[in-house]
Design goal:
Blueprint lengths: L24 E4 L2 E12 L2 E7 L8 E5 L3 E5 L4 E4 L3 H5 L6 H4 L5 H9 L9
Parallel strand pairs: 1-6
Antiparallel strand pairs: 1-2, 2-3, 3-4, 5-6
């Protein structure tokens, strides 16, 4: 998967565009990490913002849509292909700067892109 593809949901994830995932629980490969607080479905920039609650002291993390392996509507759960430590080590998400910071996508592509073994843009 290339860097660009990390910003799109996998066709096998079960996510249907327009489906509201806010409030869904998010499961890393090694356990729960929090709940979806924001969902972006902007073409080329699809992602989830997850409120980790007390797990990492109320930090919010951004997960590109390509990290989503499966969406279970009935369970209200989103499963991602990262461990808790990988998510914890991701670039810091800042609500105030996110909307005005044009480099955010590059930082996340640089962090998550190599996991796919594809080129980083």
């Amino acid at each position: 998967m290339s860097g660009i593809e990390i910003w799109d949901f996998r066709s096998t994830s079960g996510h249907v565009s327009g489906t509201d995932l806010i409030g869904f629980h998010v499961e890393a490969t090694d356990g729960p990490i929090g709940k979806v607080d924001k969902l972006s479905e902007e073409v080329g920039a699809r992602y989830l913002v997850v409120d980790t609650g007390p797990w990492i002291f109320g930090k919010h993390v951004l997960l590109p849509a390509g990290t989503v392996v499966r969406v279970e509507q009935e369970e209200k759960k989103v499963y991602v292909d990262r461990t808790k430590d990988e998510i914890k080590g991701s670039p810091e998400f800042d609500w105030d700067r996110h909307g005005t910071d044009t480099g955010y996508q590059e930082r996340y592509t640089g962090y998550y892109g190599p996991f796919y073994g594809g080129p980083v843009i």
